[in-house]
Specification:
The structure holds two protein chains of two kinds. Chain A is of the alpha/beta class. Chain A has two domains: 92 residues, Translation factors (Elongation Factor Tu (Ef-tu), domain 3), CATH 2.40.30; 130 residues, Rossmann fold (3-Layer(aba) Sandwich). The longest helix of chain A is centred in the C-terminal third of the chain and has 14 residues. Chain B folds into two domains: 192 residues, no CATH class; 127 residues, no CATH class. Chain B contains twelve helices and eleven strands. Chain B has a seven-stranded mixed beta sheet with strand order 1-9-8-7-6-2-3. A four-stranded antiparallel beta sheet of chain B has the order 5-4-11-10, with no helix packed on it. The N and C termini of chain B lie far apart (44 Å). The chains are: A alpha/beta, B alpha/beta.
Chain lengths: 276, 341
């Protein structure tokens, strides 16, 4: 990062892809205008993206550090900054500050089984984690991905998921809420599917990201299966400005989501006042 | 004792001149009936008789600060200050508060250079409080009207003269290198006058209340009904946060000149008392009620800050006590929790 940690570095929009059939989600592949400003990062970290005159907003990095040459972000159009991002055209320059926050504890996952459980557009940093583990496949035992959306058109990275289905070193379970014609995979909510297909908790770490209602009903399933809170991880979202634990906005108790998180274990969250 | 010097008040101009040759000088001034810190260029402008209505934090953490400017997509970043900053006439409470803000901005993984480029080379010259104001309670916070924490040089007002004492290497260095300031050696009478002033100030304050257990008490007070009571009274006007020397929350905003491609990104004071502070673009707000916001403010100062930095983020300056429009007195709030805990 520059000496002044509030100064964004310039990045170019290389690719833009419509990510969902309702046009609310777009994926951007960005590259550094000055390659010397490129940085290393780990799955789970985030960046502040900014459009001059509109402002900054935080987004989890969806690419994996093992993928070189681009940083990927998937943006849900909901406010001023995200709308400005959706209007971007290929070749335009925006600002970026990062990498910010902590990351999924990939060191702890080494030699262990990992189950990724996700719903909707919370899949971004989990894609980063999955791709990272694929690139270091020998470091990890069984990998399971349970990923659901309301309908097929709301699943992120669909082309890539189709490729993942061919892998024999991944247990992939895709699900949608309600049956639609042409869908030959699972139908059912993520917590229900988790109950059916989750691996044994022995030597297994769970990473859960999704809408609050999914998390609410998935956690009891994991606890029933015998996952201890220390081995269940999630990534939190909060309104953020500085991204470095100074501006006072995103705290839960004495922890800042931006600087102490965004990745927390449920054991850590149980220590905090319930405000997330 | 040999370190203590004496300066006649009518020669303060020499002291100010010596400071101005090396520093940009800030001090308490009066404008529109209020006292606040501003850049000064002569000793005449200084108003040293009582603590300021506004705190000193804005000298190092301006209310509005430009992070970058842009035009036609090209950005520029403003250059830092050309001269280091000296503050003359800050009170011990505010000097201490700067040490706390320095923990927030100047430590941790990310150093906030907007802050450190101003604070790290600054010369802090405090003046003891001969007459603490109503509502002052620095004595609750391990401070007193003549504390020296955070000061490089400490002044004591003994009537016609100031006693001048260095409290850091930086302070000593400045005093030793400033030959042109007509310091004298204080007499025994001067020193006993200073002791008298100090004693009078300390005894004029209300009794100290021991709040060393407040963090532990608040650990157990998350669900206290007192929060509802406080929220019922609080107007969320945030004058407390505006005046508070340790409140450091801020926002980052982009401002564009209408009809042009010109604009700037600013950092601007913000407050956890504002409903929009935590409101997300989706409409979700983790702290949607006055109760949750006032709990955040009290908890941040007396619990979370202790957790992270090992001290209470309050210096007892009394500004929030004096300025709250509904008399929501933080001393009373703390006492109520202590009594209940």
């Amino acid at each position: 990062m520059p000496d002044n940690c509030y100064i964004p570095i310039p990045v170019t929009v290389d690719k833009i892809r419509e990510e969902s059939d309702d046009k609310t989600l777009r994926t951007f592949d960005l590259s550094f205008c000055d390659e010397k400003q490129a940085f290393d990062y780990l799955p789970g970290q985030f960046c502040q993206l900014s459009v001059l005159g509109k402002g900054e907003a935080p987004f989890g990095i969806a690419s994996s550090p093992t993928e070189k040459g681009f940083l990927r972000f998937t943006v849900n159009r909901v406010g001023v900054v995200t709308t400005a991002l959706h209007y971007l055209k290929q070749g335009e320059t925006i600002g970026l500050r990062g990498p910010l926050g902590n990351h999924y504890p990939v060191e702890k996952f080494k030699g262990q089984n990992v189950v990724i459980i996700s719903g909707g557009f919370a899949f971004t940093t989990l894609r980063s984690l999955a791709v990272y583990m694929f690139a270091h496949r020998k470091d990890f035992a069984d990998i399971t991905v349970i990923y659901g959306a309301r309908r097929p058109g709301l699943l992120l990275y669909r082309d890539e998921l189709a490729e993942w289905e061919k892998r024999d070193d991944l247990n992939l379970h895709l699900t949608i809420d309600k049956e639609v014609s042409g869908w030959d995979k699972r139908v059912g909510f993520v917590p229900t599917v988790t109950k059916e297909v989750a691996p044994s908790p022995k030597d297994t770490w769970a990473v859960v990201c999704g809408p609050p209602v999914m998390i609410k009903y998935t956690l009891p399933v994991l606890f029933d299966l015998g996952f201890p809170p220390e081995r269940i991880y999630t990534s939190l979202e909060r309104r953020m400005k500085c991204g470095i634990g100074k501006c006072g906005r995103c705290n839960i108790g004495s922890k800042y989501v931006c600087a102490d998180g965004p990745v927390f274990s449920y054991a850590e969250l149980q220590e905090l006042p319930e405000q997330y | 004792m040999s370190d203590i010097l004496k300066l006649d008040k009518k020669r303060l101009d020499k002291f100010v001149a010596a400071l101005l040759s090396e520093y940009r000088l800030f001090g308490p001034v009066e404008a529109n009936g209020l006292t606040r810190f501003a850049e000064v260029e002569s000793a005449d402008a200084l108003k040293l008789d009582s603590n300021t209505d506004e705190s000193a934090k804005g000298i190092f953490f301006p209310q509005v600060e430009t992070i970058l400017t842009y035009e036609n997509g090209k950005t520029e970043t403003p250059s830092g200050p050309d001269k280091p900053i000296a503050v003359l006439g800050i009170r011990p409470c505010d000097a201490r508060s700067l040490l706390m803000l320095d923990k927030v901005f100047g430590t941790g993984k990310y150093n906030d250079s907007c802050w450190t480029r101003r604070y790290e080379n600054a010369l802090i010259i405090s003046v003891g409080c001969n007459t603490p104001r109503a509502g002052c309670f620095c004595n609750w916070l391990d401070l007193g009207p003549f504390s020296k924490q955070g000061s490089d040089i400490a002044l004591t007002d003994i009537g016609d003269a100031l006693l001048v004492e260095s409290c850091s290497e930086k302070g000593r260095g400045f005093l030793e290198s400033s030959d042109e300031i007509p310091f004298r050696k204080p007499t025994d009478d001067d020193l006993s006058k200073a002791a008298g002033v100090r004693e009078h100030a300390e005894s004029s304050m209300e009794d100290k209340v021991d709040i060393s257990s407040i963090k532990a008490v608040l650990d157990k007070s998350w669900d206290s009904s007192l929060w509802d009571e406080l929220a019922g009274k609080c107007l969320s006007c945030a004058v407390c946060a505006y005046l508070c020397p340790t409140c450091h929350c801020f926002d980052i905003q982009d401002e564009k000149m209408p009809g042009t491609s010109r604009g700037r990104r600013i950092r601007i004071w913000d407050t956890c008392m504002a409903p929009q502070f935590t409101k997300e673009a989706s409409g979700h707000n983790p702290r949607p009620t006055g109760k949750k916001r006032i709990r955040q403010r009290v908890m941040h100062k007396f619990n979370y800050f202790v957790d992270v930095f090992g001290e209470i983020a309050c210096v007892g300056c009394g500004r929030c006590v004096r300025s709250c429009p509904v008399n929501l007195d933080i001393r009373y709030v703390i006492k109520r929790f202590m009594d209940a805990g």
